[in-house]
Amino acid sequence: MKLLLLIIYFAVLIGIGLYCRKHATDVNGFVLGGRSVGPWLTAFAYGTSYFSAVVFVGYAGQFGWRYGIAATWAGIGNAIIGSLLAWVVLGRRTRIMTQHLDSATMPQFFGQRFGSKPLKIGASVIIFIFLIPYTASLYNGLSRLFGMAFNIDYSVCIILMAVLTAIYVIAGGYMATAINDFIQGIIMLFGIVTVIVAVLNSKGGFEAALNGLAAVTDDTVAAEPGIFASFFGPDPINLLFVVILTSLGTWGLPQMVQKFYAIKNEESIKKGTIISTVFALVVSGGCYFLGGFGRLFSDQIDVAANGYDSIIPTMLSGLSPFLISLVVILVLSASMSTLSSLVMASSSTLTIDFLKELVWKDLDEKKQVFTMRVLVVVFIIISSVLALIQYKSSVTFIAQLMGVSWGALAGSFLAPFMYALYAKWVTKASCWVSFLFSSVLMIANIFLRPSFPEIMQSPINCGAIAMLAGLVIVPVVSLFTPKPDKGLVDNSFACYEEKTEVAKKVALGK
């Protein structure tokens, strides 16, 4: 039964990839789906790129164990800040200005918006450096689940996931990933609700499980009982940093923001905002809520020996074979959708913003699409090898680098990108300072962590601080650096003033 479900699932993914080949004949089609992607596909593509096995197995287990039921705040933050506000603040303006500037990637946007090839290349280098380890981290968490369900070696899981993702991304480009993301999103929605109900029922239902959690004590965290069932948990300050990193981070991640480039029209943005928010509330809120009950299984879990990644698989190990199969497909769906989004962002950025700019300036449309397809394979191979190295050896450097990827990328790009959509006064120098500050800070956090202040020794806290610092750095540096060229800026912002006719049901008019 388990194997049959997987075979059907894989066949559907590959079939969609082959069906979408007609949409991937040029750069605009391969990277953005022709900028004609509707609200449901875009919202689900956004959500499934957001939540992967890292969230379901890693973060939900780790933060649920640390903060108890209060970890659900991370899911609520993901829905309100990471989805709702991201769509409201960035959605329309990103779609309008990126089309006006004819930019298909985030580095290309910076290059066109500020008239700077070095800025474009610098952004592409940061993406290349930090997206690869982030991509490798997606394989984490799958090993224990596949081992529990099928007794399959982790190496086989990595290769299988890599090959299948490569096939449908190479064949159908962005449109194939968007349609597959929609299917994977439905699996995630249905799967997480079903699993939560099953796990809580195994502990006597919600009320009994909550009472059981209230009775749990841990002298290393807090002496009094009830702390893991409380509203803000044992450590609200560090929980706040988790909420900031995992929620605000989406505003500056290239593979997330790029979803707004491709959306079809105004109506799609309005619908997509609602759909995306509800999706995040169910999936992310559900994951962290489930993780919050992890300590009820402490008699079966040895965190010191097996790590936080063992918590969620242990919680699920007592479920029926059908539910375990559903969980495996759920986590595989979450990981493959994020993997496809990341390799698309990496390959398009390296081709359009780096190779075409510095190496092969005469690359035509067909050659660019071919190069991107080749690079999809290259990136998937590199990330797979990194994941295998980490699994087969005791190398910790890779794991550390994975942990800082999100903070470095979002810290570098969030403030410059958001301000550039709204403000004419943003300077090139402020973008460079933001890029360098966050990249250097997060790399230093790997090698010099003991030298950091205690609150910044955690990569999560450090990443959150990098994002917030960028929001201050960009306006302050812009005050003291040469002003941008007025003609260039006016041209960029002219798109917002273009007139468009709409039906009276949309606007009453005079």
In the predicted model, the low-confidence regions spanning at least 5 consecutive residues are: none
- CATH fold assignment: Sodium/glucose cotransporter
| Computed Rg | 22 Å
* Quaternary organisation: single chain
Tally of individual domains: 1
Largest sheet geometry = none
Query: In DSSP terms, counting alpha (H) and pi (I) runs of 4 or more, how many helices?
Result: 21
What does this structure look like?
There is one protein chain. With 510 residues, the protein is mostly helical. The chain has a single domain, classed as Sodium/glucose cotransporter. Helix content is 74%, strand content 0%. α3 packs antiparallel against α12 (254-261), α8 (142-150) packs across α9 (154-202) and α9 (154-202) packs across α13 (266-291). The mean pLDDT is 82.
Q: Could you provide a short overview of the structure?
A:
This protein is mostly helical and 510 residues long.
